[in-house]
Each structure stands twice: as C-alpha cells, then as structure tokens.
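In this supplementary section we document a worked example of the pipeline. Step one takes a protein sequence of length 330 as its only input; no multiple sequence alignment statistics are reported here. Step two produces a three-dimensional model, which step three serialises into structure tokens for compact storage. The input and output of this example are shown verbatim.
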Amino acid sequence: MPRPRFLPDNFTLMLMATVALASFLPASGTPAQWLGKATSAVIVLLFFLHGAKLSRPAILAGIGHWRLHLVVTAITFVAFPILGWALRPLLQPLVTPDLYLGILFLCTVPATVQSAIALTALARGNMPASICSASGSTLLGILFTPLLVGLLLQLNATASDPLAAIGKIALQLLLPFVVGHLMRPWVAPVIQWMGSSIKIVDQGSILLVVYSAFSGAVVAGLWAQMPLPAMAGLLVVCGLLLACSMGLCVFAARRLGFSTEDEIAILFCGAQKSLVSGVPMAKILFPASMVGSIVLPLMLFHPLQLMVSAVIAGRYARRQAQNSAVAHSD
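The serialised model returned by step three reads:
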C-alpha cells in the first residue's frame, strides 16, 4: 500500500512520538541525570561520525568556490538573524515570549549537512560546493551561533558569556568532529560497511537528545505555559521564515549571476537549519528548563523545510533534465 502524501517522513513521526513520550513520561531525578550523561556521549559520537564521513577530496573540490560559500554564510548567519529580529513586531504577537526566543535561536543555527547535500543531488546542483558549504556552515556555527545568541537573546549568565559557550561547544562538537575526520581512513570502511543503517545512529542520537530536552522542559511546566493559539502561530511563523529565506537565496543567486547549479546549492544550503547541530547547542547555551521551548521552533521548521525543499528539488530536477535533453538534441 503506497504511503499517503499528507503523512510526514518517518523521522518526523518519530520526533513527534518522542515529544509525546517526554510529555507523558518525562525523565526526572536520578534517571534524568543519567540521561543527561548519555545524551552528552551520543552527541560526541554523532559529531565524530560526521567528521569521519566528510572526505578530503570533497573539501578540496568545493573549497575554491568562495563566492558561493560567502553568500551561504551571509544568509545563514547574517540575513536570517536580521530577519528574525526585524520581523519581531509581526512574529512576537503570534507566539509566547519563550517561543519567540526559540525563533531567534533558530535564526542563529547553522545549515544542515545531509539533507542539503541530498537535495542538491536530487535537483542536479553543484554537489562539491554543497558538501563544502554545508559542512563549513556547521563548523562556523560553533563560533557564530553562541556569539549571535549572546547578541540577540541576552538571557542569563550562560547565554551572555559567548566565549565560555564557544569553548563548551568546541569541546563537545568540534573536537569529536576533527578527531573523526582525522580517523577517517580507519573509520570510513566501517561506515561504508554499515551503509544506510548508519542513519539509525544519527537519528537515534537526535531522538535521545530531544527526549532529554523535552523531559526537562515538561517537568518545568512547558505545556502548562504553551497555549494552543501560540502553537498555531508558530507554524505560521516558521512558514513565513522559510518562504523569506528561500526567496532571498534565489534572489541573491540570480542577482549575483550564479549558474543554476550554484543557485540550487545556495538555496538548499542557505535556507535550511540543522536540527542535528541546533539541539546540542541549545542544551549547552540554555538552562534545562528552557531547552524544550527553545528547540520547539527548530523542530517544527525542520520537517517543514524538508517537505517544501523536496518539492522544489523535484522541480529543479525536471527543469535540468529538460534543459539537458534540449542541449543534446541541438
């Protein structure tokens, strides 16, 4: 029986189930402490594997396309935060104050890696540049995200000390990433042997971190403070941010004279936000009682960006195939 089109992907369904589990059976007390240690360990493993999967030839092949990387970086870490801040009069009335802080945090998070690359491949875009730009965005996020959070949010000692936050994030995310990349000659064959089953480790890690984050938030009274109109408003806000960011990516790519292949890479690297990087960063940057509401906008934005991007990637692919057929007929 074919899967109904209106159903989200399996990972989104698992995310929803994880939030439901944390809502009805949150971890607290000693189990929560052990869960916190476990989530720290799986985050280290997750970024170790990300480093091991990134090949040196892919880095060298894409690194020379500096104009494209500059555009993606500017959209991810400059245009997005400005957009979230400038639209405050429009966005804030739609959601609660904590959710608006989560929206600002979403705007500071780096780009995705796997989905950006996969969508660029599907749309027949510039793959080497996409690999380099998306991976570079993750590394730049270790520096820029804490600085932007400190600038935009100014919440408490944790958020207002960006240098300390950068050190924590570098230790927990960057160090395992670098170690994994250096050990790639030994680890890559194992990853290749595991094949698609490596996604179980990736997705399982995120689900565990999400359960931990929402458990702490539920114990602190998340849902009691979250009215249904605010949740509906959050969906509208995420859709608006996605539409604006995608429009900006396409406008910038065409205005600056990039090819269609480069435009595809800019769109799927610049307009997406990483759940994989964002959730661990939120756990470091914010108190446990706030993490659930802070990552909620990112969790809603993530499946929305994938569903919309998949449709757009399919259109790009058909257009590229038609152009290729016309070129061969000539």
